[in-house]
Amino acid sequence: MSGPKSGSALHLAVEVDGDGSHPSAWRRAAHPPDRLLGPRRLARLAATAENAGFTLITLDDGVLPPGTAPDPVGRIGAVERAAFAAASTSTIGIAPALPVTYAEPFHVSSQLASLDHISAGRAGWVVTEETGPEAARAWGRPPVTGAAERARESGDGVEVVRALWDSWEDDAVIRSVATSRYLDRERLHYVDFTGETYAVKGPAIVPRPPQGQLVVLGRPDRVPADLLDVALVEGRDLASVAGAAAAAGTPRVFAEVEVALDTPDATGAERVADLARYAPWPDGRRLRHIGSADGLAALLAELSRHVDGVRLRPLVLDEDLPVLSRLVVPDLSARRLVARPLPGTALRTTLGLERPANRFATTAVPEEAR
Questions:
Q1: Cis omega (within 30 of 0) on the bond before 210?
Q2: pTM for the full predicted model
């Protein structure tokens, strides 16, 4: 596995769930509250990020309905939003968050494989967890308590999902009118997984994704590194991020960075103070930049010595994303410090990851010889 690059171009990702990373971001949003779930808003955010040159957008998710947490958020499912964004974009990668703490890995694999087909190979998966007992009740499942138990469920879930993506070989679909055969059944495989809490037989119900395996992103302390393509690492300062990146053990490493940028109407600090009247900005143990676009560009340039990319979490999307798109990304592009996706390129290719061989594949036998 390759470690973090030194002085290389960064891949930029941005989280576009809700109105921003601050729980009261909706108070400064540029749209009426009832437009949050509308399709035009997501299409606009995705187009802005794509046109600016971002590699990836991510979409957070959660099973709990509004009113069950101190900061309620109404949202449409991340996979459904990702599918819509895929249809309205052409180059940017799209990675919804899906926890497998309680969700069936079989269904998760089908959803994500379908997304990769819809997006023509631009899909990723952010592996998250469900932590509260309310989530267990929402799923109708016994609670999974403790970090070790949740990590076990995540590890097992990712392993099963990856195996199911391989359960169809690339040439399993024949579509032969002459022989009236659609599938080569010999190229469909059982995964035969047995874990501590469940077993999965397989095969999947969706053909192998265009990328073979979607790009899997997650925290290496929650998911085994050998099951991740991209580690999402945290740290309140550069030294902490650099240390976490060096220890990640994954092909690629992205740093988590929260941003509150100076805008024409207010400084980043003023905007944070304004929202602090309603709720604090939660401390996610992440690197945080509050200030100018130039200052953020300098921080990202320094980060490029330690990581392959960053996932930016704007304070308020409607205020910070335009500054990122108009000032920060062009500045980094002019200095050749960011990597821009090319049309028709799979997300794995954009990230410099090889398309993996199918674990079940055997030497191809000509159809007429079978």
A1: no
A2: 0.93
